[in-house]
Amino acid sequence: MEQDFVEQFLLLTQGARTPALFRLWGALFLLAASLERRVWIANGDGIVYPNLYVLLVAPPGTGKFIIEATKTLLAETVLPNSLTPAFKLAPDSMTNAALIDTLADSTRTFLPPRGGAPLKYNSLAVLQEEFSIMMPKYDMEYIGTLNGIFSNKAKHEERRRHGPHQKTLIEKPQLNILSGVQPSYLASLFPDEAWSTGLSRRLFMVYSSETPKFSLFHKSDVPRGLRQQLLDELSLLSVAYGEMAWTPDAMDKVDSWYMGGEKPVPEHSKLQYYCRTRGEFALKLSLLASLSRSRSDMTIRDEDVERALGWMLEAERVMPDIFRAMVGRSDKDVLEELHTYMFAKFGTDRRPVRLEDIKRFLLTRVPHEKIDSLVKAGEGAGLWTYVAGNPELWVPKARIGVGLE
Question: What pTM does this model have?
C-alpha cells in the first residue's frame, strides 16, 4: 500500500527545530524537484510542469536548516536498480554564468516506459540555505535568467561578452529553487519597484517567525526504516512519466475557485503581481497533492485540489507578514505610534477604541503573531487599558507618569 509522501516526510522531520510550514514546503519541493519535466498538466494555455521557486522567509535562528535535510535526500537518491545519482544538484554558490553552465551540464535523456522518442532535457535543483549567497546583490540579468527559465520553455539561449562560452544554448531547461532569507535582507536587496517584476510573480514565499522548542536532550521518535522508504519513493518518482488526468469533480473545483475570483485574495500591495500566478500555483500543487497521495494513480482528484488549495492559502495567510517584518520598526516605536493613533481617535470619536481597530492598525506594521503581545505590553506600560468588563474596548491614557523602557 502506497504511503502519502508529504505525511511521511513530515513524520521524518517531526523532531526538527524548524517551523511546520517550512517542513511542509520542504516536502512539496522534494516532490517538484523529483518530477522534473517528466510529469505535467495540459490546459488551455499549454503545458504546466510542477517546478517551484520556494523562498523560506524568517528571522535569524528560525530553523531554515530543513533546506539542508531536503538537499541531502535528493543527493542520496539513485535511479531504480542503479547506483547512478537520480538528480542534478547545483553547487553552493553560483554566479549567473555559473548557473547557466551548470544547467547546461545537467542533461538527462529519459526513455518513456511505454516507448516513444527519448526525452532529453536539462533540469537542476538549487538548494541554498542563504539567498544572500545565491544573490548577493540585486542583479537584473540574473533575475531575468530565473524568470525566463521558470516557464519551462523549449530552449534558453545565453550570450556573454567575455569567457570561452560566449553563446550557450540549453534545450528544455528547468530549475527548482529552495532557499532561505531574512526579512531584513529582502528589504535591503529588493527596491520597491522589484515587487512589480516577473520574479515576484514566480517566487512562492513562505513565512514563519517561530521555531518549535524541544528539550536539549530531545530525541525524535522516527519509525525505523522511514528515511530509506522516502529515498526509495524518490527513486521511483525519478522515473515517473506522463500527463496527469483529472476527474470532473477536481476540474470543476479548481476552475470554480479560479473563475470565482480565487478567494481569499492576498491584499498586500506588494503581492498584487504574485496574485497573477495563483492559478498556475493551484495547478502545480494539485499535481503534487495527487503524486503525494499515490504515485501510480496519475489522476488529480477532488481531494487533491482541496488539499492543494489548503496548502496555498495557509502560506498566503502569513505572506503579508513578510513585508511588515521587512519594515524593521522596534516594538517601542510601534507602541508609541499606536498610542498616538488611539489618543487621536479617542479625542475625535469621544468613545473607547475598538480592539478590531487596534489590530487593523497593527497589521500594517508588524507580523500578525506579535499583535496580542504588543497590546499586552502597552497595557503593562500604562499606555492604555480596557473598559471594565469589556476587553474589546480600550481607552488610551495620558503619557504623564508612564513610559516605555
Answer: 0.83
